[in-house]
Amino acid sequence: MKILMIGSGGREHVLTWKLAQSPRVEKIYAAPGNGGMAELAECVDLAVEDIPGCLAFAKEHQIDLTVVGPEVPLVMGMVDAFEAAGLKVFGPNKHCAQFEGSKAFTKEFLFRHNIPTAAYKEYTDFDEIIKDLGVYGYPMVIKADGLAAGKGVLIPENEADARAGMEMIMKKREFGEAGDKVVIEEFLTGQEASMLCFVDGKTIVPMESAQDYKRAYDNDEGLNTGGMGTYSPNVLFADETLNKRIKAEILDPIIDGFIADGMNFKGILFIGLMIENGVPKVLEFNVRFGDPEAQSVLMRMESDLVDIMEAVIEGKLADCEIKWSNKEAVCVVIASGGYPGPYEKGKVITGIQDVKDCVVFHAGTKLVNGELQTNGGRVLCVTALGETREAARNTVYANISKIHFEGAQYRTDIARFN
Q: What's the whole-model pTM score?
């Protein structure tokens, strides 16, 4: 098979790494790919938003399967374009991708199908939302409705910060069109958890669990990021009572809701959960693999990912047995100095060749005249398997110290339990 991977981040690198393990795969192209993916795939100079260009490439090179990694081309309708051309493609269509493209769309779905989630209101008028600040008390949750690269959620502690946040979103337009509509929600307390699921339109199958760390700095301090590290499995899901409750109150109603609403959802559904006292509530949906959750989860997958993706596309997920390693995985992100705020690119990266017993997935790198340089906020994802979480964690941190670039920053408390 020839595969086209759309994307250039850590998620796309781990997907490429996993797909390359399949004996069925002969060649992988990556559009546009990154410095790490170049070792596994032929990188082609196509932007993820260039749907006509990617489609023409797939036709010309007789691609057997296209895998759409990031949310932007999914929300733009890349899957619809490939399907219309009769090409096999993995990911949800444009209608279903609204679950990530619009926070309000997701909240309306959750409420319509009685799936537990936070109370919310949506707004398009700045003055109206200012009048409602604090309607659910503080801290309050403010979400830009559209795509904001994982940074469109603010959690102000008081009215002054809430007002400043709303001005940033709706007046200064920090997130562009994503802030044309704003959702405010009640603040949920508890423990956050990530659940990645395969969905084929009529069956939903959760993968092994993961725990993400969103805040930039140790002890969950600093701004929200796209994710600074993960571990798998998540200790919360060792509770069988909780797992049964998630299936009955969340997973089953989601698939029933898709069918009732005529949504032929095929691909990945990422469910963000908040769990308190054994009660799960949905925080958000995404329509692609989480990053860096995918790094920890796919390290533990023993089945052929090509087979699973084809089963999803063909509506045969119920017949698919997915096998997982009993080992535990830990992933730690090395980011550019200043991330998630302003940061510089083009810093030379050294030391990756010295890493042992880990896989270094590239999130924001590029090769410039054979030299590896930083090219994003999150740069590298150092990931390891171990017989225990602590063993995997020790392996990761022992190797991180070998990698260097100017301004490198990372959390030192990923997967650490006191």
A: 0.93
